[in-house]
Amino acid sequence: MESAISLYRLGEPEAVPRLLEVYRRVRLFERIFQNAAKRRVRDTDPTGIAIKKSIIEADRRLGAMLAKLRAEAGPVPGKQHASFVQAASEATDPADIEWMSLAMEQSATSVPASVWQPLTKARDGIIARIAGALVKNK
Question: In the chain, which ranges are E strands?
């Protein structure tokens, strides 16, 4: 996760797809561990209690990873504008759209409106609406 964020900040050409993949996987694992934490365990089952505690701890760590990924979403680095726009215009996965929407919101004041113009015709309506609002506000 840390290396994906660092490559994104440094302007690595393939960093946006890598970061989206990391975000997708962390979101998936978080949902899996949240569902696993709902498991009922008897008070007299020490093995079950230990397993449930480890599941809950893993869920906390995944939550911290998601918070870090969300915080680092924006502003979109200047070297990443082109790859970000390309990925956002073709995005259909809900996790990708969630992360890109955060990145766009966090970049509202630091990225020129011309960068968002192509996204007004994005495949996803959420990204298109955010791009339209960012273009109108500048």
Answer: none
Would you state the pLDDT for residue 99? 96
The pair of structure tokens assigned to 74 is 């924006």
Contacts of 1 (CB under 8 A, 6+ apart): 22, 26, 65, 68, 69
The domain tally of the chain equals 1
Q: How far is CA 64 from CA 15, 44, 97, 137, in A?
A: 21, 31, 20, 33
pTM of the model: 0.85
Question: Which residues contact residue 12 at a Cβ distance below 8 angstroms, ignoring those fewer than 6 apart?
Answer: 18
Containing domain of residue 99, as a range?
A: 2-137
pLDDT at 43 over 80: no
Average pLDDT over residues 71-81: 91
